[in-house]
Amino acid sequence: MIPRHQTVLFVILLLASVIMSVLLWNQLRRTHERLLRGEDSAPTRAPEVAPAEQATLMVANDADNSLVPRTLTLPLPQNPEARARAVLGKLLDLDAAPDATHPVPGGASSIAQVFLLPIDGGGKTSALSPQLAVVNLTGAFAAGHPSGLQSETLTILSICATLNANLPRATEVRFLVDGQTRATLAGHADLTRTYLAAEAAPAEGAHP
């Protein structure tokens, strides 16, 4: 004959097992319902692709120390800062190509961010007010850039002139590297100054 205390213990364990099974089943059911809700809330449309537009890139040429305009059709976002980053990214992709006229490694990923800030005009700004473009380059780009005054200067002028060609409100340009002020790009070209974008773009037939 089974002692009374063992019978009570068996009943308690059996009830505990049943309760744990019910709780586990409820937890699994709620998890399954969350997964189903997540599938139902997933977007049914593909993300919108930026419309293709013409952009003018001022491509550097080491052979004659010039900037050559090149017009391409690119998907460009409507947001001005994203647009600036897309245009400059394509410019640096051209510089990183095997047949580049201004060989510089890095490509589009070398542009970390582009910020467009209003230039103080006595407290009044409008849709036509000039802007300061702050181009934040990556440390890897600066570390891998060929050292030399001509090469570094051409890169800076190429970026400034490309901004001027595609975002005319960006009249001034400053450079950062990994979000910090840096003395030079690769030992020569000054990154502490503010560049005038219009002056970077050469007159027709002229060199910068």
Fold and architecture overview:
With 208 residues, the protein is α+β, with helices and mostly antiparallel strands. The protein folds into two domains: 1-42; 52-200, no CATH class. The protein is built from five helices and six strands; from the N terminus they run αββαββααββα. The strands form two sheets. A four-stranded mixed β-sheet has the order 3-4-5-6. Strands 1-2 form a two-stranded antiparallel ribbon. A hairpin with a 4-residue loop joins strand 1 and strand 2. Helix 2 (80-96) packs antiparallel against helix 4. The radius of gyration is 30 Å and the shape is elongated.
**Could you report the average pLDDT, rounded to the nearest whole number?**
85
N to C succession of SSEs: HEEHEEHHEEH
* Spatial separation of the terminal alpha carbons: 106 Å
Instruction: Count the beta strands.
Output: 6
List keywords for this structure.
208 residues, alpha+beta, 2 domains, two-stranded antiparallel ribbon, 5 helices, elongated
Which secondary structure elements does this structure contain, and how are they paired or packed?
Blueprint: H1 4-40, E1 52-61, E2 66-75, H2 80-96, E3 111-118, E4 131-137, H3 139-144, H4 149-166, E5 170-177, E6 195-196, H5 197-200
Parallel strand pairs: 4-5
Antiparallel strand pairs: 1-2, 3-4, 5-6
Helix pairs in contact: 2-4
